[in-house]
Amino acid sequence: MSGSYELMALIDNAGTVLRWTQAAERLWGYSAAEATGRPADRLLTTGGESRPAGPLTASGSWSGPVALRQRDGGCQMVDLRVTPLPTGETDQDWLAWEAAPVEAGPRSGLDTGMLKTLFGHAPTGVAFWGLDLRCTWYNDTLTGMDFMPGGPRVGDRLPDLLPPGRGHRLEDTMRRILDGGPPSMDLVWMHPPAGGDPELSLSFFRLDDGDGRALGVCLTVEDIRESWSRQRLGLLVEAGTRIGTTLDVMRTAQELADTTVATLADFVTVDLADFVVREQEPLERLSSTEASIPAFYRGGMASIHPGVPEALWQRGMPVLVAPSSPYTDVRDSGEPHFEPVIDTSIPGTWRDHDPDRARVFRQFGIHSLMIVPLQARGKVLGIVSFLRSRNQAPFSSVDVFLAEELAARTALSLDNARRYSRERTAALALQRDLLPHILHSGDAVDVASRYLPADKHGGVGGDWFDAIPMSRNRVALMVGDVVGHGINAASTMGRLRMVLNTLTNLDLPPEEVLARLDELVVGLARDRPEEELTSPSVGATCVYVVYDPATRRCTMASAGHPPPAIVTPDGNVEFVRLPPGTPIGVGLGDYRSVEMELAEGSLIALYTDGLVETREADIDHGLDRLRTALAVPATTLEDLCTQVIDTTLAGKQPEDDVALLLARTLPLAP
Questions:
Q1: Fewest CB within a 10 Å sphere: which of 53, 265, 314, 445?
Q2: How far apart are CA 265 and CA 140, in angstroms?
């Protein structure tokens, strides 16, 4: 409580001091000679700036807490009571000032000296507000912050210090805290309110005495401009490592949601066009109503709440929207939709036609919204919705820019994944069609084969194998590998395989077959249109083998291909070191054959480098694994193919496509 009131001064209606008592001298430190004749409002200043006395120098009664600036520069809180004293003269009423010092303890429970010691030099702005929600003390740091336009003032309420509306909202927060509510932490303050960077972080908490009785509210203010910029930069860096780690569109969509929730928004959804999620049914085939149409498929979502309770649709489900809504507007225009402040109580908005979303907004207190397009190479692949509920700060224009940057990076990953999936599907279909479905090896050998596409690169590769019967019971065996991956490599493989079929029918020796193939490929490259000359030249490795069961002679030549393996009937494995030869398409045509005799029941193993080469180990390690696999007897050639694949790859997905052709020599039919 306050002490007893004492008469301090008499003020005329112009606000000038007429009388100055000894009590006023003790309280202010000014003598009567120094105070008399001075404007009264100069005696009610803090922080070195004058404060208009307002009702304290106007006719009429007034009472309340007031801060006095003392002669020595100190500050003293008093309960001031102003009473009019009519003099009987027109417009010559006086005002009597009576004051009682506010004691540290019973009224405020706070010791000013202690506050100065604890918070006077703190880098964070600090202010204390009494039970009447008037400022009782603040430090110098708060004075230097761009928070209160006229600076903080002891005795004022927040609505007196802040722009209209903003102070009342914060005062409501303080009143709720005084009534026992939880502290309010990290309220982001921006200037102007609806745009620009976040500048300050405000936190409020209640102050209690030793018996748990409320003394008031403490406000702390922290400048976060630099930290907020670092946070945005950190989010972009994190997005670069977390988004687009695979060529899976659903995984990429979820990575965007996981990366941005909590840091940028409290609830994030990523909705994709149906042509992006190719395994889904086209949206136009799904049923719609007058109130809602299927517009997207849910690709990803994340929330600060466990289980994402805000979501109306789960991942993989079609997402419904009103026929006219900001979601379809963003999809159709490619421009973002920005609602910094959402008031669900106001009628006449798009939410009137979207009651389900309106209900979710009200239920979870969603108050700010951004919808940005996922746009890459001129095509909108979907949309991303960012919503805030717990974070009381509205989205700013800077947030929109950041969201667009994140969406653009994600969209590029999505488009790459989409193109990869489309090309891989086409290349696999083409390769399955171009590779032999049934190997016809005649009566010279039994054959078995395997083909394993890798999951990496831009699609399947150009690996191929074939077995072509020749005259006099002979058979041609071949395995090759076109440089590159994707649909171009697959189609090139098909052309080379057809050319080899034609050359085989000419009954040429292996070295001449490879030389003719090289010459033809170089000629085709020379005849390409000028605009295609910048594309990679066709290149391929190949091993070509002819086996004659009548003489048991095996003739083979290589165009830069891994060496064939020969397994004798007793299980000995030998790699044939052929003259290396240059890859097909180089144009040198320098190939030589090697001839050897094979025992009846011998095995010829031809393969591509994907079987024996990895990034971790060189080809010699791969050849050792292949030797081990071939040396173990198997019941059938099919079983041996499986055994070779399992041993050499050790259960791992191949880094490159794998083609394997096994041929076991047969006795000549009588």
A1: 314
A2: 34
Range 179-195 burial, b when 16+ CB lie within 10 A, else e: eeeeebeebbbbeeeee
Element (H, E) at 218: strand 214-223
Nearest to 122 by CA among 138, 99, 146, 111: 138
> H/E element holding 78?
strand 75-85
CA 250 – CA 270 distance, rounded (Å): 9
Place of tokens 């429970």: 109
- CA-based end-to-end distance of the chain: 125
Residue 580's nearest CA partner among 596, 557, 564 is 557
Task: Say which residue, 128 or 194, is predicted with more confidence.
Answer: 128
Q: What would the pLDDT profile of 139-178 be if each residue is shown by its tens digit?
A: 888 888 878 877 788 788 898 888 877 888 899 999 999 9
Task: Give the list of residues 6+ apart from residue 24 with CB closer than 8 angstroms, or none.
Answer: 8, 9, 30, 32, 35, 97
The domain of 468 spans 435-528+537-665
* CATH (domain of 167): 3.30.450.20
Assess contact for 515 and 523: CB atoms under 8 A.
Answer: no
Angle at 184 between CA 211 and CA 131, to 5 degrees: 45
Measured in residues, the chain has a length of 670
At residue 526, the pLDDT reads 64
Which uninterrupted H or E stretch holds 524?
A: helix 510-526
Reported as type and span, the H/E element at residue 274 is: none
Q: List, in order, residues 6 or more apart from 599 with CB less than 8 Å away.
A: 552, 568, 569, 665
Same domain, 447 and 397: no
Structure tokens, 411: 């969209």
| Burial bucket for residue 21 (CB in 10 Å: 0-12, 13-18, 19+) | middle
On whether both 495 and 351 belong to a single domain, the answer is: no
| DSSP β-ladder status, 6-11 and 17-20 | antiparallel
In a domain, 252, yes or no: yes
User: Tell me, what DSSP letter sits at residue 39?
Assistant: B
∠ CA 199-203-205, rounded to 5°: 170
Mean pLDDT score of the chain: 83
Burial of 306 from C-beta contacts in 10 A (0-12 / 13-18 / 19+) = exposed
Buried b (16+ CB within 10 A) or exposed e, 332-362: eeeebbbbbebebeeeeebbeebeebbebbe
Q: Average pLDDT for residues 455-465, to the nearest whole number? A: 65
pLDDT for res 423: 64
The CB density around residue 155, as the number of other CB atoms within 10 Å, is 21
pLDDT in tens, 367-405: 999 999 999 988 999 999 999 999 988 998 889 999 999
The 10s digit of each residue's pLDDT in 586-618 is 888 789 999 999 999 999 999 999 899 887 777
Give percent above pLDDT 90 in the chain: 40
What does the block give as tokens for 426?
A: 């086409």
- Please give the single-letter amino acid code of residue 349: T
How are beta strands 94-101 and 75-85 bridged, if at all?
Answer: antiparallel
- Per the CB < 8 A criterion, the answer to whether 479 and 607 are in contact is yes
For residue 112, being part of any structural domain is answered with: no
One DSSP character per residue, 597-611 reads E--TT-EEEEE-GGG
Residues 416 and 439 in one domain: no
Q: State the CB neighbour count (10 A cutoff) for residue 203.
A: 15
